Amino acid sequence: MKIRIGNSPALRRLALPQSALRQSALLLKLASPLLLLLTSAEAQVDVLITPPDSDFTIAAPPLCSTSSGELAAATLAAKTVATDMLVTGKYRAQGPDAHPTPLGDCSAADGGPFTADLNGRGINILVSGKTRFADDRGRLAVFDFYAYDVAQAKAVIGKRYEGRSDEAPNFAHQFANELYAYLTGEAGPFGSKIVFTANTGGVRELYALRLGTAEATQLTEEKGQATAPSWSPSGDKIIFTLQKKSATDLFTIPSAGGRAQRITFLPGSEKRPRISRDGKQILSSVEISGAESLALFNFRGRLMEKLTESDANDIDPAWSPDGSHIAFASNRDGRWTIYRLAANGGDARPLVQKKGSDCRSPSWSPDGKLLAVSCTVGSEHQLFLQNLASNELTQLTFKGDNTAPSFSPDGRFLVYRTVAAGRSDGDIAIFSLPALRTTLVLQTPTDDDDPSWAP
User: Which of 47, 80, 279, 342 could crosslink 38 through cysteines, CB 3.0-4.6 Å?
Assistant: First the structure.
């Protein structure tokens, strides 16, 4: 089942407030080249990072075509490329809404040069090409994409994709990844999947969103409260918590959707599960006698080992990428603090502490060097990034209520839930670490929560 989200697939960009910039702000280079970081956790100075808007403009008018059917596919392909490039937060991207017709001569063999005054329009890269149907019914199509560099006055990328005409978005994602790699030297994330939950009619189900599109696919129809989905390391299944009546247990479902399989049958509640790196164990919080502890289960639902046990609540567990440690949130010291625990046991030690704040929802970067968390700032939650080598804690978001961060597979983006001022329902947003910018990618009439990026 597919549902269309909102009236327009155009992305909305959320500008961070310039007023929050302080004279005391200090920019420091992180060990990772992706970011500029900030301030010492000890000093508890929150530093706003808002780079100026990029003047680099990518234009993606409809690809050239000769029929109305081809034009629809050509327009969708161009719109998808523009939407993808907007997600990065690094570029200005102008799609078919800004340029409803091709910019120049469609007879060009390599996407250019065109007769349109691209310099005068402030365009740096022109996405161009042709779409043509390969059969009489319009089911098969050929998509030729080019990236035309205005400064060099030549095409710098040329790709041909052949397949079903309804695969236009998939081909566009592939080309957007090629373009992003050309501009940055790094692989693009476009076309990757994000699973999340949505509350409709009093029940919460799982949905999957393909980054760069405006459609989400419903994965479950359990008519309960499905929460906290996460992917298996291989990406073939999704594990989640499902509450029906008085029972709260762990379930799995194929990542493409299908029948959910119940894993645990204990009298207590199991929450926020995570599958181990080898795919053989499930890490979860478990509540049996009042307080929540961390425990390991096998896929037959057997409780293998309790990792923590105290009068406090230990929740939100997350495996480190190498499987050697577990980050989790605990209120054992009075406030919610992020702790680290060796996977083979031992004492838990504080990992992320922010004075006067509660911090939850840890998410490891794929290289294990950073930890994204959500901490309270006044009455709201904001995203922070902890450099695990230097213990520097950096505030990333400053508007709305922001929770449940999850890293992209390449470590350059965070997907998270955001509740804008004046709203009660959550939406899905992405924070670009290279651009230090937030983009709202999913806004619906429902309450969306718990996003998790596919591996």
Answer: 47
Cα(294)–Cα(318) distance, rounded to whole angstroms? 11
CATH number at residue 441: 2.120.10.30
What is the model's pLDDT at position 346?
A: 83
Distance CA 95, CA 100 (A): 8
CA angle 141, 142, 144 (to 5 degrees): 145
CA distance 56 to 90: 8
Token code pair at residue 80: 């998808």
Q: Which residue has the higher pLDDT, 224 or 29?
A: 224
- How far apart are the C-alpha atoms of 56 and 92, rounded to whole Å? 6
* 295-336 pLDDT per residue, tens: 999 999 999 999 998 889 999 999 999 999 999 999 999 999
Model confidence pLDDT, tens digit, residues 31-80: 333 333 333 333 333 333 334 346 899 999 999 999 999 999 999 999 99
Within-domain flag for 405? yes
For residues 172-188, give the mean pLDDT.
94
Q: Which residue has the tokens 């004492």?
A: 347
Do 180 and 228 share a domain, yes or no? no
What's the pLDDT at 54? 64
d(CA 173, CA 157): 14
Which domain covers residue 383, as residue numbers? 193-453
The beta strand positions in 261-307, using DSSP E, are 261-262, 269-275, 282-287, 292-297, 303-306
- Given 184, 217, 252, the domain boundary residue is 184
Higher pLDDT, 189 or 345: 189
How far is 49 from 51, CA to CA, in rounded Å?
6
Q: Per residue in 88-147, pLDDT tens?
A: 888 999 999 999 999 988 998 888 878 888 988 999 999 999 999 999 889 999 999 999
- pLDDT for 30 equals 34
88, 136: one domain: yes
Euclidean distance between CA atoms 86 and 180, whole angstroms: 11
3-state DSSP assignment of residue 361: strand
Which of 137, 165, 184 is the endpoint of a domain?
184
- Same domain as 385, residue 342: yes
Distances (CA, A) of 416 to 288, 404, 448: 30, 5, 10
Same domain, 241 and 113: no
Q: Are residue 300 and residue 254 in the same domain, yes or no?
A: yes
Per-residue confidence band for 214, with pLDDT thresholds at 50, 70 and 90: low
How is residue 41 annotated by DSSP? T
